[in-house]
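User: Is it possible to get a 3D structure for a protein together with its bound compound? The compound here is PMV. I've pasted both below.
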Amino acid sequence: MIVPQFLTKIDKKQLNNGVVNWSSPSNIALVKYWGKKEHQIPNNQSISFTLESCRTTTKLSFDRLDKPSNKFSFEVFLDGEKKLDFEPKIEQFFKRIENYLPFLNDFHFKIETSNSFPHSSGIASSASGMSALALCLMSIEKQLNPEQSNAFFYQKASFLARLGSGSACRSIEGDIVVWGEHPDIEGSSDLFGVKYPYKVHENFKNYQDTILLVDKGEKQVSSTLGHNLMNNHPYAKERFKQAEANISKIKTILETGNLDDFIALVESEALTLHSMMMTSMPYFILMKPNTLEIINKIWEFRKKTGLHICFTLDAGANVHILYPESESKAIYEFIKIELVAYCQNGHYICDRVGFGAKQL
Ligand code: PMV
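Assistant: Yes, that's possible. Here is the predicted structure of the complex:
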């Protein structure tokens, strides 16, 4: 599948070497993407809050090779250490995007990356990592083709990031991003994420996300395997319909600021994602006992206080606790006193909604 709008003409000759730097955030889905078709096309639409503190910073140095190579020439470093085990994923990413960036074979690339969160935290670094790399590559394209518009730059960066890791396409901009063509979201596309184009109620400004690190181990199921389990899944068709309906519902919620409806939708989405895994073949339980302890404590606290605290989950055991800024004092106290005990080594990360990637 070739998407002509992202095949750009560039003058390959004028650039010999250089360095570009980007910092790109992670994101947390409210309506979850789970299941994809060929070429990283999602089976359902998703919407996410862009985060602020959980970030990957990538420095990409490039040097023209004596002659273009038929193999990609690159090396990857994480926190200054060479990471041979990152190479297959980057090789696959370069293969998927080479038609769109014809200069990939002309340079040797040194990719130096670091995360603001510990690598072994169970926090997926693929969204922030792939979006940071896609932006660095776009900055090189921009040097080769300075006339390109900012709108095109960001759209193509999201398009490329998606080919590295689906959810990475939602990490370019902020504060809310939709991915997947949806009749109610103007401009939405399966090919890239778009900044949520409608009015958002004050309640959602600076929304807080405290991430409780329940299990910092390697992922039990890789994303690729997990997405594939949605093919031939007995409940897939209904799930995809539900996600589409939930995007319409969340549009109303974001406009009205109805936090009770927000909580119901977000928690149901998280549990649905996990129930898809529990009902696939093979089946998985990615939550840990402490994940459930935390969920139950959140429910008790919410019932007792009426405060608008809720949880969401990724494809793992860690818990994202979402709450409005106006209630953050009492909720953060509760988290520290009651919930941190369930985290591995007491580790958690304070994050909030952010505004996307930054060039450094
Ligand atoms: O981007 P991927 O292929 O790793 O998929 C991530 C999917 C979830 O994090 C579970 C949900 C989402 O929409 O981010």
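The domain at 4-199 is CATH 3.30.230.10 (Ribosomal Protein S5; domain 2). Helices lie at 87-97, 126-144, 150-164, 223-228, 236-256, 259-278, 289-305, 328-339.
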